[in-house]
Amino acid sequence: MFELKPYRKNDYDLTYNPFKELETFERSFFNDPFFNNFFTRGSLASFRTDIIDKNDSYLLEAELPGFDKKDISLNISGDTLTIEAEHRDEHKEKTKKDGYMHIERYSGHYSRSFDVSEIDTDNIKAKYENGILTLTLPKKEPTVPEARRLEIE
Q1: Is the pLDDT of residue 34 over 50?
Q2: Structure pTM?
Q3: pLDDT in tens, 117-146
Q4: What is the C-alpha to C-alpha distance for residues 19 and 97, in angstroms, rounded to an integer?
Q5: What is the pLDDT of residue 7?
Q6: For the chain, what is the domain count?
Q7: Which of 16, 94, 132, 150 is the 20 to 30 A CA-CA neighbour of 82?
């Protein structure tokens, strides 16, 4: 029986990363609501998905709120389906004090990969509506090994 599961390269990364610690400190120090809502609890590295078995196909629903359809890409390489989404936001604010202009940029990249070895990849259908990416992944028809008779020499 085939089970569609997310593919993750580094579920348990035990290496120390001082830059991640510095980034966490910076976010908590500046207390920016954009970061607190959008980037917390590892949501930047991955996004939530629901996978439903519909007997003849799977229905994959991925939550990608705030993205435009053009920011999302779906790629199949071998038996791996990769969903990627890139978010860029720029906030400009002019102040009168000494002619300074305040500009902040936010950028994030989501990526998830799934094993599609048992999926008919030629007939996958994708739809993006109201922040939800919906993929219909039809299952491959089970193949019955061909029986044949061998001649004795």
Answers
A1: no
A2: 0.58
A3: 999 999 999 999 999 999 999 999 888 888
A4: 33
A5: 55
A6: 2
A7: 16
Token readout for 90 is 């720029």
Domain match, 64 and 132 both: yes
Question: Which one-letter amino acid corresponds to residue 114?
Answer: F
> Residue holding tokens 């990627």?
84
Statement: residue 20 has pLDDT above 50: yes
88: CATH: 2.60.40.790
